[in-house]
Amino acid sequence: QIQLVESGGRLVQTGDSLNLSCVGTGPDFNRYSMGWFRQAPGKERVFVAAITWSGSRTYAADSMKGRVTISRDNAANTVYLQMTSLKPEDTAVYYCAAKSGGVSWNTYTYDYWGQGTQVTVSS
After folding, report:
1. What is the distance of C-alpha 108 from the center of its chain?
2. How far apart are CA 54 and CA 18, in angstroms?
3. Burial of 92 (0-12, 13-18, 19+ CB in 10 A)
4. How far is CA 88 from the centre of its chain?
């Protein structure tokens, strides 16, 4: 079992950039595919980006392509989410998640979740 802790969320303005981090503790963290998801108030949790265990492949939601970069440092047990050109509609709680096997955009396939970090984008 692994534990995930997100950080970096805060209040920003439209057009700003923001970097989120997710630190994992527990065995074999670097063998998990990792994903970032977000959940806005009253809405479902949705896929943002994912990365393979090696970091060789990354994927992003269509709505975020060109504005988001996911990366990982397995030596530091950390996954990052860099976001640019933030918009008010990006306001949400951002979660990182881990799953065995390949990447997925389906929340139900992830085994472990962090508590989330709040990102608020003011207009």
Report:
1. 15
2. 24
3. buried
4. 18
Decide if pLDDT at 92 tops 90: yes
Contact by Cβ (8 Å): 33, 105: no
What are the tens digits of pLDDT across the range 30-78? 899 999 999 999 999 999 999 999 999 999 999 888 999 999 999 999 9
Write the CB contacts of 115 (distance below 8 Å, at least 6 apart in sequence): 5, 6, 95
Q: Which residue type is seen at 97?
A: A
Asked if residues 83 and 20 have their Cβ atoms less than 8 Å apart, the reply is yes
E strands along 1-123, which residues?
3-7, 11-13, 18-25, 33-39, 45-51, 58-60, 68-73, 78-83, 92-99, 112-113, 117-122
Give the length of the chain: 123
Contact call for residues 76 and 120 (beta carbons, < 8 A): no
Nearest 5°: phi and psi at 76? -105, 5
